[in-house]
Design brief:
The complex is a heterodimer of chains A (267) and B (344).
Chain A lengths: L1 H5 L3 H15 L32 H37 L1 H16 L2 H9 L7 H27 L3 H8 L4 H37 L10 H10 L5 H34 L1
Helix pairs in contact in A: 2-3, 2-10, 3-4, 3-6, 3-8, 3-10, 4-6, 5-6, 6-8, 7-8, 8-9, 8-10, 9-10
Chain B lengths: L2 H17 L3 H40 L4 H6 L5 H10 L6 H13 L14 H35 L5 H16 L2 H15 L12 H32 L2 H8 L4 H39 L4 H10 L3 H29 L1 H6 L1
Helix pairs in contact in B: 2-5, 2-13, 6-7, 6-9, 6-11, 6-12, 6-13, 7-9, 8-11, 9-11, 10-11, 11-12, 11-13, 12-13
Classes of the chains: A mainly alpha (267), B mainly alpha (344).
């Protein structure tokens, strides 16, 4: 049973392994320029072909996908860790605090965060991955807080929560011991979709030219592909497939985590 | 539902109608309630724009690095640095700078563009809003219509159960496909390889180019609207008033479009409102891809040249568009859903 639930995260593990292997097995430094072979099509020795200025795309895409997955996972976990207790606490305390958090979630979630990211990143000279992670973390908590809020609204009326209050537990204790464990399942699904959307946003930032300074980003590959659309469509295809697969794998993995957590808690 | 059940339902709706506030007093309290809601909304909108603008303001001043050096680069001499600092008022205390910034925000005047001296930053932003608003509004309309049509197809009786399942699967796959990946591929296939549509960045692409760009932007929105629409229609489909409509002899088109759809519109409007941020982000990506002039191109240009007043202005404008659209969403919901109208 557990094995079946883990099945959806197999693609994530496989992709992580492939991207690590692809990045480690590179025969030359990643992103080495060799103008002679610029935009050459895929061959057996280089299955993804070559990009702008003769960059071998396989190691670039592998390491970019790996880093994007890591970024997505880290930021989504941060959002989970901040948003879930926040939403739970808001729903437990009711009243003004609850309404404020609810409304803030609405706004932050719907807000053009991509544009905010552009503006905040302009404050640093060459945005690194840490800066990009920070910008995404500004809004990553909102979906988790909102889910936790909605779940806790039904949980707070449950008998075991009332019992815990009646036995004299403080609200913080109830939150940690009784509410948060119940929020893990919904949070896990959201974990996957938040991570996927961060992978896509990172690619979009790279695409418009705000990627990390080393240029190892799926968005930068897409950007090359668009610029060389007529000469070398394989670059565009590689970039587009890489972004779609990476984000899709994150989505699936989130579902599998949720399955594992709910199956544990229902036993 | 049995005939007696239908009659009971009809009686209940009649009763609830007669309980609605009538007369001058009812109208007055309703007007006060509406005014209070509107005032609260307006106050909230102002807070949102100010918080957003302040985030950008403080990010530029508190993050390590000197803004003047960001603008001029490393080779700038002290005299030039001092000049830029003075023109951005960076030599004043931060509280004074902030007050000045808030005043600029209130009067919609954030100073001159650094790169084009003599041009107001807000004037450049105002010039760029038009094309982006055109793109975004058309995309919202297109996405809403396409998504609602898909939701109706997936819920109504027109397709076989199998066909409905495929529509729903198509919606899920489309919603999971990132715009930044499929827009270039679609452009390559349709505009470059098969030349069905003109390239939207082409000056003489005209309406067809704009429509193509809007369709690209609308597709993810349509998928989200379709998915939420399906769920919302499934909820409404269980309601007794649809049975009443059918019992009164309404055809499927009448039952689903006239009776079910207005009741299902709330979540649809909500999802359009939550997707709006993503839509504006997508507009930036598309504008960059097609080299089309607009808010996104302006933002990227201001970013590349660190034209701070223009950057602040563009973000504030994006926030303003967002706030206005949210309010419009609420208004549309009230206008269409009869239950919300009755509650007022």
């Amino acid at each position: 049973m557990i094995a079946a639930r883990w099945r959806d995260s197999v693609p994530l593990v496989v992709l992580a392994a492939i991207s690590t292997a692809g990045a480690l097995a590179a025969r030359e430094p990643i992103g080495r320029l060799a103008p002679m072979r610029a935009f050459r099509g895929p061959t057996w020795t280089s299955p993804f072909g070559y990009g702008e200025a003769g960059v071998d795309l396989l190691p670039v895409v592998c390491s970019a996908a790996g880093r994007a997955m890591l970024l997505g996972a880290v930021v989504a976990l941060f959002g989970f860790a901040v948003g879930t207790p926040l939403g739970g606490a808001a729903a437990l305390s009711r009243g003004r605090f609850e309404r404020a958090v609810d409304r803030a979630c609405d706004l932050v979630q719907a807000f053009p965060s991509f544009i905010l990211a552009l503006a905040v990143l302009s404050a640093v000279r060459a945005p690194s991955r840490v800066h990009i992670a920070f910008v995404f973390a500004l809004s990553a908590w909102a979906p988790f807080a909102r889910l936790a809020l909605a779940e806790t609204r039904t949980l707070r009326a449950a008998a075991f929560v009332e019992a815990a209050f009646a036995l004299g537990r403080r609200p913080s204790g109830v939150l940690v011991r009784h509410i948060v464990p119940h929020l893990m399942g919904v949070g896990a699904v959201q974990l996957g979709s938040t991570a996927a959307s961060i992978v896509v946003s990172e690619a979009a930032l790279g695409f418009v030219g705000l990627g990390p300074p080393d240029g190892v980003s799926l968005g930068a590959v897409l950007d090359q592909g668009v610029a060389a659309m007529l000469r070398a469509p394989h670059v565009l295809a590689v970039g587009a497939i890489a972004v779609t697969v990476t984000s899709g794998v994150m989505l699936l993995a989130g579902r599998s985590f949720a399955g594992v957590i709910t199956s544990r808690s229902s036993r | 539902m049995t005939r007696a059940g239908i009659r009971a339902e009809l009686v209940r709706t009649e009763r609830s109608k007669s309980r609605a506030p009538h007369g001058a007093r009812g109208a007055a309290t309703a007007a006060i309630r509406v005014a209070r809601v509107l005032l609260a909304r307006a106050a909230e909108s102002v807070v949102v724009v100010v918080v957003l603008a302040s985030t950008v303001f403080f990010a530029l001043r508190w993050l390590p690095g000197d803004p003047a050096r960001l603008v001029l680069g490393d080779e700038a001499g002290p005299a030039e640095l001092a000049k830029v600092r003075a023109s951005l008022h960076l030599d004043e205390p931060i509280a004074l700078q902030y007050l000045r910034f808030l005043r600029g925000l209130a009067t919609l005047d954030l100073g001159d563009s650094l790169r084009r001296p003599g041009t107001r930053a807000m004037a450049r932003v105002a010039g760029a809003i038009g094309p982006t608003a055109e793109l975004a509004l058309l995309a919202v309309a297109m996405g809403a219509v396409l998504g609602i049509a898909a939701a109706l197809l997936a819920s109504g009786p027109w397709l076989s159960p199998r066909g409905r399942l495929w529509v729903e699967r198509g919606l899920i796959v489309t919603a999971a496909t990132p715009l930044v990946a499929f827009a270039p591929v679609a452009t390559w296939a349709l505009a470059v390889r098969f030349r069905v549509v003109p390239l939207p960045g082409d000056p003489d692409a005209g309406a067809a180019g704009l429509l193509f760009a809007c369709a690209l932007l609308a597709l993810p929105l349509a998928a989200h609207v379709g998915r939420i629409g399906c769920a919302s229609l499934a909820d409404v489909a269980r309601q007794p008033f649809l049975t009443v409509a059918r019992a009164k002899g309404g055809g499927p088109l009448r039952v689903w479009v006239v009776h079910a759809l207005p009741a299902a519109v709330g979540p649809i409007v909500a999802v359009v409102a939550t997707q709006l941020g993503a839509l504006l982000g997508g507009a930036v990506v598309l504008e960059r891809m097609f080299e089309r002039w607009g808010l996104g191109t302006l933002l990227l240009e201001a970013y590349a040249s660190r034209d701070l007043p223009v950057l602040e202005g563009a973000v504030v404008a994006a926030g303003g568009i967002f706030v206005v659209a949210q309010a419009l969403g609420a208004a549309v919901h009230t206008a269409i859903d009869p239950r919300v109208r009755a509650a007022r």
